[in-house]
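Per your request, structure below.
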């Protein structure tokens, strides 16, 4: 559990602004059952991409997916009254693509960023929507990586021999790991609102404080690879 308690920002005497941000995990540590729909879609698209893009020239020799599934809540209160209460969920995904060979690939030198393609996935566990976006990101990532790799090959052919001749990617024994758990339940929105009102009301005791704001945030997430 990460807690970032209070930051008091000094301002002129007429205005005092208090920002109170709380990043917390729920009291219960019980985990939800693994999300088979998301994992199944990731495995299916990874297999399809490996098969289909393996026929391309140049072909990728490494592909991976990483999904961050996060619940985010924010509550703002002032002088004991609620100002804003928001709650949202987001699934972000990174598709990693290496084209060429471990000795020389698209991530060579200044082209390192060509390996990453990022986007967002549907949060309602629609397998078709998840699969379509994964394939779109995978194909776009492959196109960018392939283009970068061809540029790398051209530069290394015409330029003088580099001092650093280490490979761009290390060869290691493959590790197989499947893991995903849906985000654990956050603190109830009503409880966050009650806390925000409670803390913000305390500043009404001090007549020299003309303006105060309390901000509570909660961010709970899980990673699937």
């Amino acid at each position: 559990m990460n807690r970032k308690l209070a930051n008091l920002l000094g301002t002129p005497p007429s205005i005092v602004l208090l920002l109170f941000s709380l990043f917390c995990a729920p009291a219960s540590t019980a985990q939800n059952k693994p999300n088979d729909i998301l994992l199944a879609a990731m495995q299916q698209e990874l297999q399809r991409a490996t098969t289909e893009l393996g026929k391309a020239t140049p072909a990728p020799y490494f592909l991976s997916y990483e999904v961050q599934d996060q619940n985010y809540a924010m509550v703002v209160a002032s002088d004991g009254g609620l100002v804003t209460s928001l709650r949202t969920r987001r699934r972000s995904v990174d598709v990693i693509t290496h084209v060429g060979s471990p000795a020389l690939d698209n991530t060579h030198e200044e082209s390192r960023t060509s390996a990453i393609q990022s986007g967002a996935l549907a949060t309602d566990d629609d397998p078709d929507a998840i699969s379509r976006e994964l394939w779109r990101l995978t194909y776009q990532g492959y196109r960018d990586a392939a283009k970068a790799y061809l540029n790398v090959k051209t530069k290394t052919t015409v330029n003088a021999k580099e001092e650093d001749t280490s490979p761009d990617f290390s060869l290691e024994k493959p590790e197989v790991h499947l893991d995903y758990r849906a985000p654990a339940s956050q603190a109830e929105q009503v409880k966050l609102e009650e806390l925000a009102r409670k803390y913000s009301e305390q500043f009404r005791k001090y007549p020299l404080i003309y303006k105060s704001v309390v901000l509570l945030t909660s961010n709970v997430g899980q990673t699937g690879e």
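The longest helix spans residues 127-158.

Regards,
D.
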